[in-house]
Design brief:
CATH architecture of the largest domain: Alpha-Beta Complex
Number of strands: 19
CATH class of the largest domain: Alpha Beta
CATH superfamily of the largest domain: 2-enoyl-CoA Hydratase, Chain A, domain 1
Number of helices: 28
Oligomer: single chain
Largest sheet: 9 strands, mixed
Radius of gyration: 27 Å
Length: 647
């Protein structure tokens, strides 16, 4: 593939695919067309045996790429046209993920200013090269955005609290800092770059990069890290602001001055993003998806237009932000990271390039287990499934029995209806499993059954885990489940790559049975809050309060909850949910009743007083067993309350 424009040069030289940014007067700012051209080239070279590696560089000494081309976004946004910017971000983020996941080596040579979109180009590839002129930064908070293009992932991976410092202050990293913070891999003097590029193109061998590398220059941030960690460890923006105000050092004063220039809402959201990344699994696709929630809303609801006006258009450097530095409401930041309705990021499927595949037996291929098994197969694992019903899934081999599915597997996963069935299946498959394999039960069952099965598995030389899930069928299909895991620590480490495919978060809760204990507590809260949410909507209807107005208030105020913000029971309000599909179950009311009964049994065994859980169980029992709740989503409590008075 060869493409020459005034913005970018794409061609093949020897064994290398070459991508060169060619607009140095604009600091090689990244346009929408450039993103699409880079993506097309990478896809073209993916299966080309003559292309052994890819080189990305840029003309000019001042900048590799100083960011995205935001002027057009501003012009359209001022007219109330937001889709152009949103499409740009969706396309750019897809390209960022492709760069990060590309199976062939990619070497990026990042001289001068490398900021924003430039970090998206050079920050995720396999060989990231910096020189003496390199200045890397994520300055998005200064224009009312957040560190995006996967930058939030790089910041979350930085040592200590350097990610918070870099993301909030937009501080620049020279070559030593870039290496210390994980934004680069190799320091090579820029005088040697052209010779190295020629060698790489001739040989297609990336080993030449390590041979040319020199010891890392000094990192000022490394020497300042102790102070940075102390000042930027706060949970919220106000905590960091207060810590900086309380410090009397010159460094703290300079950092506070930097924060005072940037959009407070953007900084508060940046903190929340970094904390979410660290609490879950660090993954480029999940980082980009979280970033997109903000950028999708950045023009109509954020400070982006005002930030661009002040910094780029009028250049008065006097933006009028929505919030004061010390007064960003928690709800405002949470709203910017709510799921986006009717907009999802699409990524390229490179699963054929995956390595380190596991042999997995998956038993129980229903509404939850089926999508989970498919996601594992799409990721390149060898999955054999069994279900008592005839189920055919793309990429999943079919076994004639549970024992056949489990034989010789590295991991056996079960997703079953109850504890008795789990114990029966476990008695069948444990003797067929090889020593050292992981027995991973993702069912929601009683704690005693989970611990009994774990004991049997451990006695047979297996690594038992109980890992019930949260997230419903939508989460199973999207690979965004949360796993609450009890059991062997070594087993958890073995299974963690699988959790990262099937979900967005996995938490090791301790000994066997603790995963089930966590799920029971979580779903008792969920059952109670869904009832309260449905009651509130029904009350709002009777008071003449518009549902959208109620959602807009409650979802950004103290009444916010997962039941309101993510799984809203009112059709047409908030992100899509089963309410928009006539309450066809994502999580059936029958299953909620089952979980609440498990919670009641656990509370009785532990002598715990749970009156709200007991009341929720009684309501769901009436809804499922005496009314029309059977087979409907658990959020269908809303039409139930709509139709009822106090009598």
């Amino acid at each position: 593939m060869t493409a020459e424009t005034t913005e970018i040069s794409i061609r093949r030289e020897g064994r290398a695919g070459r991508i060169t940014l060619t607009r140095p007067k604009a600091l090689n700012a990244l346009s929408h067309a450039m993103c699409l051209a880079i993506e097309a080239a990478l896809l073209d070279w993916l299966d080309d045996p003559e292309v052994a590696l890819v080189l990305i560089d840029a003309e000019g000494e001042r900048a590799f790429c100083a960011g995205g081309d935001i002027t057009a976004m501003y012009d359209e946004g001022r007219r109330g046209a937001y889709e152009g910017a949103r499409q740009f971000w969706r396309d750019e983020y897809r390209m960022n993920a492709l760069l990060a996941e590309y199976p062939k080596p990619i070497a990026a040579f990042a001289q001068g200013f490398t900021m924003g979109g430039g970090v998206g180009l050079a920050g995720h590839v396999s060989h990231r090269i910096v020189g003496d002129s390199t200045q890397i930064a994520m300055p998005e908070c200064g224009i009312g955005l957040v560190p995006d293009v996967g930058g939030s992932l790089l910041l979350a991976r930085a040592p200590g609290r350097l990610g918070e410092y870099l993301g909030l202050t937009a501080a620049r990293m020279g070559p030593g800092d870039a290496l210390h913070c994980g934004f680069a891999d190799h320091y090579i003097p820029e005088t040697a770059w052209e010779t190295l590029k020629t060698t790489l193109a001739e040989t297609g061998d990336p080993e030449a990069i390590a041979a040319a590398a020199r010891p890392a220059p000094e990192s000022p941030l490394a020497t300042q890290q102790a102070e940075i960690d102390a000042l930027f460890s706060g949970e919220r923006l106000i905590d960091i602001v207060n810590a900086l105000k309380a410090s009397e050092t010159e460094f703290a004063a300079a950092a506070l001055k930097a924060l005072s220039r940037n959009a407070p809402l953007s900084m508060a959201v940046t903190l929340e993003m970094l904390h979410r990344h660290r609490a879950g699994s660090l993954d480029i696709r999940k980082a980009l998806a979280l970033e997109y929630r903000f950028t999708h809303r950045a023009l109509p609801e954020g400070d982006f237009l005002e930030g661009v006006r002040a910094q780029v258009i009028d250049k008065d450097r006097a933006p009028k932000w929505q919030h004061a530095l010390d007064a960003v409401p928690l709800a405002a930041a949470a709203k910017m990271l709510q799921p986006v309705r009717d907009a999802e990021l699409a990524f390229h499927d490179l699963s054929a390039q995956e390595t380190h595949a596991m042999k997995i037996g998956f038993i129980g291929l229903g509404n939850m287990g089926g999508p989970m098994a498919q996601n594992l197969a799409k990721a390149g694992h060898d999955v054999t499934g069994f279900d008592t019903q005839t189920v055919t899934l793309d990429g999943v081999a079919t076994a004639a029995s549970a024992t056949e599915a489990a034989r010789d597997a590295d991991v056996v996963i079960t997703m079953l209806p109850n504890g008795e069935i789990l114990k029966s299946v476990a008695a069948e498959v444990i003797p067929a499993m090889k020593a050292g394999a992981v027995f991973l039960d993702c069912s929601t069952v009683d704690v005693d059954s989970a611990r009994a099965v774990a004991a049997d598995a451990a006695a047979a030389g297996l690594l038992p885990l109980d890992a019930p899930v949260s997230g419903g069928t939508g989460g199973a299909q999207a690979g965004t489940l949360t796993f609450m895991v009890g059991g062997d620590a070594a087993g958890f480490e073995t299974a963690k790559p699988l959790f990262d495919i099937m979900g967005s978060k996995s938490v090791h809760c301790g000994a066997s049975g603790n995963g089930q204990a966590a799920k029971i507590c979580n779903n008792m809260i969920l059952g109670v809050t869904m009832i309260a949410t449905c009651e509130a909507f029904a009350l709002a209807d009777k008071l003449g309060l518009d549902r959208q107005a109620m959602f807009d208030v409650v979802s950004t105020s103290s009444g916010q909850s997962w039941s309101m913000n993510t799984y809203c029971p009112a059709p047409g309000i908030g992100p899509k949910s089963p309410a928009d599909n006539d309450y066809k179950p994502g999580f059936a009311a029958d299953l909620m009743l089952k979980d609440l009964r498990l919670a009641r049994a656990a509370a009785e065994g532990a002598d715990a007083d749970t009156p709200m859980g007991q009341a929720a169980m009684a309501l769901y029992a009436r809804f499922v067993e005496e009314e029309d709740g059977a087979g409907r989503d658990f959020s269908a409590m809303l039409p139930r309350f709509e139709a009822r008075g106090r009598g």
